[in-house]
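Data availability (excerpt). The following record was deposited with the supplementary files.
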Amino acid sequence: MRKSLLAVLVGAFTLSTASANFYVQGDLGLSKIKFTSYSGMTKTKIIPSLAVGYKFADWRLAIDYSHYGRFSDKVGNESLSSKIYSLGFSALYDFNVNYDVKPYVGVRIASNSFDINNSSPGFLNDRKETKLGYGAIVGGSYNFSPNWDLNAGLEYNRLGSFADTKINQYGAKVGVRYEF
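Predicted structure:
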């Protein structure tokens, strides 16, 4: 009986909040990934990202996934490549202004995964490393239909640091957000 009551209460709570303040957001952006020591790997790419979040008052909290892609360089006989993707958490503040476009600022922390391949004649090193990253976000959103917002923003992320290089991401993105 207690388990049934608990299940009913959890279900009722879930249903009551399922349509309140949750959102999904998809973005597509132009990002420059800069390697401080391997300039040949520095590239500008189109980067997709997807976020699921919760909005309360003027705050939004989101979990996001970004796929930065593959980067490679060859120096002499040595080849280096890295595939980078990220799972992050963002806290964003929407400024309550009397304009159609609502500005926002935010911060992000992330677990950034690097699939690294380093090879030269007689040597091969494949490894996966995870680095803690951080970033800042600024942008604006425009409510063009009930529950739908158009989003545009700028972002900076420190994706990670290795012994010989630091990896930074600078980007501009646009997307849509749907609030349930």
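Summary of structural features: The CA atoms of residues 24 and 59 lie 15 Å apart.
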